[in-house]
Write a structure and sequence with these properties.
Distance between the termini: 37 Å
Number of strands: 0
Strand content: under 5%
Shape: globular
Order of helices and strands: HHHHHHHHH
Radius of gyration: 17 Å
Length: 192
């Protein structure tokens, strides 16, 4: 009930600060900007918003799950999951710079060992797959997988030392999908 009162404002703040970070990256053409005094507090606020949502989802009772799935999940997907996948940042960079190359951008993340993403987003969607297992639709689970897995793999595939928090969160995400949603995976295969 308390989250419902603050939910829209939290999502709006997340979207606003995501736009700020995106614009900082686009205007500087570098992820180094994320280590500056302008971006660090903004990133922390975004992380705390996701963390609050994670705490709420982990503490949901069974009767709250239906309400969550009906009213809160879609705004979370739209604001947080799409931002995590990098679609909005890539689109913005492509619009501004004709010669934008996503592979070079991903290499920059690797070489600087920095990303605009937050591993708490993976934890959030891991918790959603676990807590809401009876109510998740195959198309929703497929959406989670399509946005989280490739985007995270682009960070961790080149070596075993960078982004350990993302690596662990991804493996937990996959573990919980297999543990709690194996029937949905079978239904996804039918969709594809």
């Amino acid at each position: 009930i308390q989250l419902g009162r603050l939910f829209n404002e939290m999502i709006q703040m997340y979207v606003y600060y995501s736009e700020c970070i995106r614009e900082y990256i686009v205007s500087n053409q570098s992820l180094q900007i994320l280590r500056t005094t302008e971006c660090i507090p903004i990133s922390k606020i975004r992380k705390e918003i996701v963390h609050l949502l994670l705490i709420y989802i982990d503490s949901m009772k069974q009767d709250q799950v239906v309400s969550f799935m009906g009213t809160l999940l879609n705004p979370i997907i739209e604001a947080i999951l799409h931002e995590y996948s990098g679609i909005r940042l890539e689109t913005r960079l492509s619009q501004k710079y004709n010669n934008f190359n996503i592979n070079e951008f991903n290499q920059q993340q690797q070489s600087l060992n920095i990303t605009y993403k937050d591993f708490y987003v993976i934890k959030l969607f891991t918790s959603i797959t676990k807590q809401c297992k009876q109510f998740i639709k195959p198309t929703q689970l497929l959406l989670f997988i399509e946005h989280i897995v490739p985007s995270t793999l682009s960070l961790i595939q080149d070596n075993y030392k960078d982004f350990p928090d993302f690596r662990l969160a991804l493996f937990q995400f996959i573990y919980f999908i297999i543990s709690y949603n194996i029937q949905l995976l079978e239904q996804i295969q039918d969709i594809l």
